[in-house]
Amino acid sequence: MAIEKVYVYNNTSLIQDEVLAHRLGLIPIKADPRMFEYRQPDQEEGSAEDTISFALKVKCTHNSSAPADATQPDILYKHNNVYTRDMVWVPVGNQADLYPEGSVAPVHPDILINKLKPGQILDLRMDCVKGIGRDHAKFSPVATAHYRLLPEITLTQPITGTDAHKLKECFSDGVIGIRTNDNGEDEAYVANARLDTCSREVFRHDNLKDKVLLSRVRDHFIFSVESTGALPAATLVSEALKVLMKKCTDLSEKLEHDEDS
Question: What's the mean per-residue pLDDT of the chain?
């Protein structure tokens, strides 16, 4: 869900209407898109099933109780900064009965939308609709997504004493551990190779570089998905897999249909 339409009733700030609308569209909205339908292209007005509406009405005024020697705008003025917490959810239809108060709102309350001077006003109405990231990035609930192969670290020779501690310092915390061997010496071992960040520091040391083998497990992928906050990352992965499975099913049915014809 993302802001698609902005109705500007009054905007006397320095930001133009179209630039302000673009900023508003990129604000992540805390609402489960699975509870809503897609709005039809020829649909002029939204309904409770496909639209979330917000109102934003802020006026900047002088702070009459500000000290005489104050110079900071936050002290001199009231409502000079417009944040996402100033956006008020306006339930459409029976949404107030379906969704508890506070369940529909911007993900972060402290996103700065605009700055005002005394006398300047923002009076807007915003309609959020359901969409997909292919149409516009604002509809994507994923902030970043990437993968890497699982690191594999092999110690080809025992590394003990000061070399063991030096080896530990060559990697991120938790990758290399130190334990006492049967001879009572400190000996290095691989504690958790997954924490490795592709460090090559060990190859700078002539007494260590031939004792360590760095590689990757070719069939072990580590996926990292960061959510914008609209849905938990685990839910995003689960829903993405459902979409992928549906695409595979549709392709399989299409191929079978082509073979039959």
Answer: 90
